[in-house]
Cytochrome b (Hyphobacterium lacteum), 426 residues
Amino acid sequence: MSHQSTYEPKTGIEKWLDARLPIVRLGWDSFVDFPTPRNLNYWYTFGGILAVFLVIQILTGVVLAMHYVPHIDYAFDSVERIRRDVNYGWLIQAMHANGASFFFVAVYLHMFRGLYYGSYKAPREMLWIIGVVIYLLMMAAAFMGYVLPWGQMSYWGAMVITNLVGALPVVGEGIREWLWGGFSVGNATLNRFFSLHYLIPFLIAGLVILHIWALHVPGNNNPTGVEVKGKGDTLPFHPYYTVKDGFAIVAFLMIFAAFVFYLPNALGHADNFIEANPLATPAHIVPEWYFLPFYAILRAVTFDIGPISAKLGGVLAMFGAIGVLFVLPWLDGSKVKSMRYRPVAKWFFLIFVIACFGLGWCGAELPDNQVLGTPLQFVTLSQILTAYYFAYFLVILPVLGFIEKPKERPASIEASVLGDQPAAAQ
């Protein structure tokens, strides 16, 4: 959404710089005077929250890297030394470890908001696709970071996941051996994961810049899904949304601080405070909470599908659960973006959210355990929820695009705010 620049350099230095490198003008046009839909609610503040937590993760990660020793004989002890002996190491390590979880809380809320308000639809397909790439890199960085403390869950989590990658046809064995740096998880693996874990956040930072660029071309989506039609539909980003985002960021940081100072280990697994032992397998190997839905999808495939083994089928389903997000803009054929005006789609979306939480619950439980004392096993529940997960994207949204009759939408964003809401042209 291009707009005329209102930046006027006042001092001689500003004029000199603006004529040679207009970076101040870029910042002004992007974060101060950028026209933003006037009806954005607090669900739209998670982009700013994610930016803050990316900075927190990079800064604390750089400091931790100065003291961490990526060697299987010293990694576990070096993490304990950071907590006990490094000045404010206990704080920096707790911020980094809990920051990963809060990063994923914010990104999941950010993605659910995008799904509900149709932020993946034209003309914002590239914005959505770049966001999914960022999400994939976040998952890779988080997985590799979880291995670095070299506790029991770190080691066995790396063993399980890298072995699953080996199930991929043709390329699987090569990728697994490259990740291992040999023939099993060991010192070379830890070194590779440390290097990649350090590198990926900077790649994410670069993609975030692309993400913001892709956002500023068509402009923000909004809760109505109606595009900007006039100046009355927008407000300058500053001070209206800087204040709103700032309040949400402070509120989120207060919850984060409560975990850092009072519950620093609440989101971790107890077995990871035991040093890695290749000869002692934990009773129940589970990933971090933010991977649990995909872990449940992986375990839901317990049967061969023609020539595809159950193991390979589970891996393909797990990767497919993320891959389907890339083509989502072309699966949903409805011309109405926001589910505020799609009464049937709204209910299917609510069931989808419940299914995602249910998959997370299933991923944390043993597959053969019974659900709340009923005859239903968690593996069966996982299969039901996995089927709905894929059906939502591949069947429900495409079909609803043809058969659903949406409600009347407001004629403009300004009309929706002022309460005068005649129907928009379809």
Summary: The chain has two domains: 41-285, 291-407. The beta strands are 35-37, 234-236. The two ends are 21 Å apart (CA to CA).
